[in-house]
Amino acid sequence: MTVPLRVTTPSACTAPPSVLLEGGNWEAGVVVTVTAIDDAVIDGPEPCLVVLDPLIGSDVNLAGFDLPDLALTVADDDADAVQLLSDGFESGGVDAWAVAAGN
Description:
By secondary structure, the chain is an all-beta fold. It has strands at about 1-5, 15, 20, 35, 45-50, 70-75, 80-85, 90, 95, 100.
């Protein structure tokens, strides 16, 4: 039996397009690797929904059976790109601030 998989948030994660359940693994199951997408955007936690579409195959007892979907959360590992290095100072009546790019 083929279990079709699809990710509804491809900007957050990826998964294989399907997995195969057959004589040697149908009862124990198979490992499905879902991979988080690492971007450079500070966007906070993102949902990753892996949809398991109805089973496909010749077994009339299982074909069309719809397994529950898998909802995950991808944590954001990015940090602010601009940091405040000093609390400011006055120079001729104008406040100046020191900033730097980086983590």
